[in-house]
Specification:
Layout (H helix, E strand, L loop, with lengths): L5 H9 L34
Amino acid sequence: MPIKDAKQIREDYTNGNRNFIAIELPEVDLSGINLSGADFSNSDFSDA
C-alpha cells in the first residue's frame, strides 16, 4: 500500500475516497479539518 501525505489524503477525501483503512498519520495535525463521513477503521492516530 503506498504511503500518502496529508495533501494526498485530503485530495482523496475531496474526490469521494473516504475509506482510510489501516492508515497511519504520525505527527499529523488534524485540527480544523472536517473528516465527517470518513472510515478510519483500524487506523493508528497514536502520534496524531
